[in-house]
Amino acid sequence: MPSYTCSTCGKEFNCHVSLQNHVKVHDNAIVDRALQKIFEEVEQAYEQLEEKEELKEELSYDKQLEEEKEFSYEKQLKEER
Ligand SMILES: [Zn+2]
């Protein structure tokens, strides 16, 4: 009688279909773990993105202030002439 051995856990089955059905259990576990990892990474990336967005807002605010300063300086120069 041929036996089919699961390459993941070593369990033996006497028909190919049984092994195929059994292997899905491992596949699901692997997929679950992979998905869990992806979710965690996405969450982390999202948190980092939020931090970056905050930083960007701060930077653009500073830039705006500088541009306003430059503008008023130019205006002053024009008025002096
Ligand atoms: Zn197995």
Automatic annotation (TrEMBL):
Q: Which InterPro entries match?
A: Znf_C2H2_sf (IPR036236), Znf_C2H2_type (IPR013087)
Q: Which residues form a coiled coil?
A: 32-69
Keywords assigned = Coiled coil, Metal-binding, Repeat, Zinc, Zinc-finger
Q: Name one GO molecular function term.
A: zinc ion binding
- SMART domains in the record: ZnF_C2H2
Membrane-crossing residue ranges in chain numbering: none
Residue span, C2H2-type domain: 4-26
Question: This protein is called what?
Answer: 1343_t:CDS:1
Top-rank lineage group of the source organism? Eukaryota
